[in-house]
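Collaborator request, handled under Task 6.
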Amino acid sequence: MSDKLRLDTAAQQFAISIFNEAKDDKTPFEDYARQFGQVFNSEPQLRMMFYEMLFSVALADGVLHPAEEKILRGAPTLLGLHGDVFNTVKRQFVSDLSHHYAILGLEDGADMSEVKKAYRKLVSEYHPDKVVSKGLPEDFIKFAEEKFREINESYEAIQKAKG
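Structure tokens returned to the collaborator:
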């Protein structure tokens, strides 16, 4: 939890307590996800960040188990995200150039004009100053900072590969 999600000790303990509460609760994940999607209906960036965090948690052990994949495939609809987001986010966890295109939300081999456009849009959305100004919790700010770093790394990797 500290490595993958970059949570401090207090946040880790809070996340563990929420996880344990949810694990013992009979309320299905789908109900929580649907409610999150409704509450944050006007915040697509926040819904996407939450979905990416779910993916990070599912892959914390390095394996996407079939039950986890089933939940992650259904979550975009519940969260109000477009249906093909699963494959895009899944590719973010692959370590080849495809991974970098996925971080930017692009298909493999997109031309540099598409890469630049996607890069600029994402940098604007995940810029630390912009995220802080929304008054989001510290965990989301840390996640956005990490995402911002990944966006920059991916842009540079694609730029380098394309010469």
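The cover message to the collaborator said: "The mean pLDDT is 83. Residues 23 and 123 are 35 Å apart (CA to CA). Please let us know whether this matches your experimental observations."
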